[in-house]
Amino acid sequence: MKKQLLAAIFTIAGASLIAQTPRLSLYEEFTGETCPPCAATNPGLNALLAQPQNTANCVAIKWQVPIPSAPTNTWSLYQTNKVEINWRYATYGYGINSAPSGRMDGQLPTVFGASSAHPATLNSGVIATAQSYTSAFSITLNRTWDPTYSSINVAINITATAPFTSTGNLIFRLVMVEKFIQFATQPGTNGETTFEDVAIKSFPSIQAGTPMLSTWTVGQTQTINLNCPVPSYCRDKGEIAFVGFIQDDGNKKVAQAVRADKDPIPNDAKALSATASYINCGNSVTPDINIKNNGPTAITAMTITPFLGANAGPVTTWNGSLPAGQTTLVQMNPITSTVNGGQNAVLNITAVSGIDGNLANNTTNTNFYLANTYVGNYVTEGFLTSTFPPAGWGFENADGGSSWARVTNAGGYALSNNSAKYNFYANNNIGDADELFMPPFSMVGAITPSLQFDLAYAQYDATTDDQLEVFVSDDCGNNWTSVFNAMGAALATAPPTGNGSPAYVPATAAEWTTIYLDLSNFNTSNLLVKFRATSDYGNNMYIDNVNLVQSGTVGFNSVKSNVGVDLYPNPAQNQASVKITAPNAAAASISVVNVLGQVVVSKKANLSAGTNLIQLNTAELANGVYNVIIEAENANTVKKLTVSH
Q1: Sign (positive/negative) of CA torsion 277, 279, 281, 285?
Q2: What pLDDT digit, counting tens, does each position of 140-189 carry?
Q3: Residues 183 and 252 in one domain
């Protein structure tokens, strides 16, 4: 009986020596900052991964791939780490050719029960199935900050709990991730501003990793010590975590994963956001800044300095007691500026209880618009310079997503390559309204004040109702009057592009129209004008050659009359002919107006019933685009004329 009991004990002990280890699964998502489906998928994926049962079973890494295209901003998540990202998604052998896409433990998630590689098909059951396979390895990972909080020392201990032989090179890879990133404005073009578990750097690199032996016996160990400098583009040191994993490069399978979570930094003030009244009539604005104590000890003092460009504004000093994890709203001292239009104030926190070990998260910014000088004569804008918004202009983008931007691939009537575009095509935040403000303007003494601009827009399909409105205000934005409102088919200047087609770009002059708006009721010294675009996730809209003028004959809404008008040759050199077909005898006036709203040619004519031919001398006109305005029969017709000598 004793011999049988002793044999049973040896059997149990021997089995424990080769017992494998529970697995922590690795989920890798390949997502993109210019990928609209990624922006739609990631909130749900993040919520799934955050569920407690899934956090215990799985750790995630998000690779920001250049699919369908690479973001142009150099500070984007892809651009700052593109060498590693390119290798991981394109070279390593995962076969990633679409985004979003996922791999579970180096394999297609379908191996564990998902219906596809798309992250939307991942669920708790798939994660649990992947985790249920035991591993031949156990891993411990410990991290410690260096005294200056500029690098992190990571100690990894690997132990084999069962025999193991790899099919190819066996590699331990260590990836530094930022657990949570919040951008004020999108780094790409898909409207995504919130990111989680983002791979920002690997050590020593994702390509090389740390080599391991290909054959392991029970109890065999390996110790790895790595010093991991924090990259300069890290947004928040307090959000840094690590994901380590053992991978067989022969079959791409991940044998085991391990995590090391975030580690707080003492005296860490985090600038969460800043807000200010957007429209400010005068030369000052008073912003608020929302600050979180991101460290483990109370903050008792700090200073906040605003910057307009390179110029520092008045410092705001805060004293009190801000407990760990709590937030406070600090009202800044007023910032003054003599510059008109949209501006950006950068607010920087310093002297946090003497020193702050995490300066990367101490800065935030806010946009505002100052109307301190109302310009006269005219405003003319063809978006020819690279600055956007142009000097004196401003735009408000509340959600930080797709909005107004300057483009260099389309211009009014195909006569230039520059215009302002609103990106309805990428703005999936339906109902999102973004506003583009013109410089503050004085209309005092105007004879026929007016606004005109060129417009091009195509619906995505017949059901999309993107909208453009134009408003004016003479009381500093307290009240606005609508002077133009069109949406959907009424806004369109070209046919719908068709479901699945690329983003709309006007290719011909025929796809443009000119809008003329009468502002004769606004003879005021303090006029504000704004364009409001409201997204229905349709297709792109372009405006160009925006002119706000005090005088001339352009002060009317464009109304079709029963007078037929043809203009030729166009382009013209020394002379152009205006052919007018009138149903009745009538008086008419013909005006040629330049881009500044100035009348450069004016003629009166008595039309007879039928066809009339009127000659315009263009020999003395400068090369460029002009509006030819024909007023007859109590209505108006406008034609574009190009002069090219």
Answers
A1: positive
A2: 999 999 988 999 999 999 999 999 999 999 999 999 999 999 887 889 98
A3: yes
